[in-house]
TrEMBL record:
<dbReference type="InterPro" id="IPR015867">
    <property type="entry name" value="N-reg_PII/ATP_PRibTrfase_C"/>
</dbReference>
<keyword id="KW-0472">Membrane</keyword>
<keyword id="KW-1133">Transmembrane helix</keyword>
<keyword id="KW-0812">Transmembrane</keyword>
<dbReference type="Pfam" id="PF02588">
    <property type="entry name" value="YitT_membrane"/>
</dbReference>
<dbReference type="InterPro" id="IPR019264">
    <property type="entry name" value="DUF2179"/>
</dbReference>
<dbReference type="InterPro" id="IPR003740">
    <property type="entry name" value="YitT"/>
</dbReference>
<dbReference type="InterPro" id="IPR051461">
    <property type="entry name" value="UPF0750_membrane"/>
</dbReference>
<feature type="transmembrane region" description="Helical">
    <location>
        <begin position="107"/>
        <end position="126"/>
    </location>
</feature>
<feature type="transmembrane region" description="Helical">
    <location>
        <begin position="82"/>
        <end position="101"/>
    </location>
</feature>
<feature type="transmembrane region" description="Helical">
    <location>
        <begin position="12"/>
        <end position="32"/>
    </location>
</feature>
<keyword id="KW-1003">Cell membrane</keyword>
<feature type="domain" description="DUF2179">
    <location>
        <begin position="223"/>
        <end position="276"/>
    </location>
</feature>
<dbReference type="GO" id="GO:0005886">
    <property type="term" value="C:plasma membrane"/>
</dbReference>
<feature type="transmembrane region" description="Helical">
    <location>
        <begin position="147"/>
        <end position="169"/>
    </location>
</feature>
<feature type="transmembrane region" description="Helical">
    <location>
        <begin position="44"/>
        <end position="70"/>
    </location>
</feature>
<dbReference type="Pfam" id="PF10035">
    <property type="entry name" value="DUF2179"/>
</dbReference>
């Protein structure tokens, strides 16, 4: 039953993500002739070169890539990806028949909102344990036979798409708008996958870590962990207080630390993702 519920959740995420991805392409990028990264960008370019519909171009690009790279991915992932590509193509095909999209003359608006829609859509698709297209598989194949990492391969493919945009449209501005669209999408995807965590991870090296920890617990209501260590050169014992606080609590935390030890070493880092809550209560 758990497996069925999990798969239904994946299907829902993929369907919603495909709808948003298709909306971003159809409503914003396609009318402005702006490309994006991955196979959606390749499909837009193919559409303008051959006049083949974007939905058909997506299928023509993706299905062979998925079949070619089947040994690099699991059958379940391949099936979900085919479903994702099919749904995206379907939505791209039916949207113009369902809605009359207003013409947006501002390129910045088209780029930003197109990038946001595509970013959210791809983020949902990835959360649904699928891929939005075949460039991920191309990257896996390249990394399997070369020393190039998948992320680097995807970046190279996106650069090729941007260069193709500049060459085909003979318009450098469109290529730059496309680059901005890819950047916006990437940032949104990262936000979707990492969540909206606004916590900070703080490491405090101090001789008064016990007192600081007690004060943090009393004033901020946060718990933490004291780690034992030693100096790298002198081998003297050290205590490191590890605590997670909210972004708005950082200044209060600094004040607490300064009250007890002005010489304390404090390192503050972003917590991009967190699981569990034992340190936050």
């Amino acid at each position: 039953m758990k497996i069925v519920a999990s798969e239904l959740k994946n299907i829902l995420l993929i369907t919603l993500g495909s709808a948003l991805l298709a909306f971003g392409v159809t409503a914003f990028l396609l009318p402005a002739q702006i490309a994006t990264g991955g196979t959606p960008g390749m499909s837009i370019i193919i559409h303008y070169v051959t006049n083949v519909g974007v939905s058909l171009a997506m299928l023509m690009v993706n299905i062979p890539l998925i079949i070619a790279g089947i040994k690099f991915i699991t059958p379940a992932f391949a099936a979900r990806t085919i479903f994702s590509v099919s749904m995206t193509s379907l939505f791209i095909e039916i949207y113009p028949n369902l809605f009359i999209f207003p013409t947006i003359s501002d390129m910045l608006l088209s780029t930003l909102y197109g990038g946001i829609c595509i970013g959210v859509g791809v983020g949902f698709i990835l959360k649904g344990q699928a891929s939005a297209g075949g460039t991920t598989i191309i990257a896996k194949i390249i990394s399997n036979y070369t020393s190039i990492k998948p992320a680097q391969a995807i970046l190279v493919l996106d650069v090729i798409i941007i260069c193709a945009t500049a060459f085909i449209y003979k318009d450098m501005e469109l290529a730059l708008w496309s680059l901005m669209s890819i950047y916006v999408s990437a940032k949104v995807i990262d936000k979707i996958l990492s969540g909206s965590v606004s916590e900070k991870v703080v490491h405090i090296v101090s001789k008064h870590s016990q007192e600081i920890g007690v004060k943090i617990s009393e004033d901020l209501g946060r718990k933490g962990t004291i780690l034992s260590g030693h100096s790298l050169t002198l081998q003297t014992p050290k205590e490191v207080l590890f605590v997670v606080v909210g972004s708005r609590e950082i200044e209060k935390l600094k004040a607490i630390i300064n009250q007890h030890d002005e010489q304390a070493l404090v390192i503050v880092m972003e917590a991009s993702e967190m699981m569990g809550s034992s340190l936050l209560t």
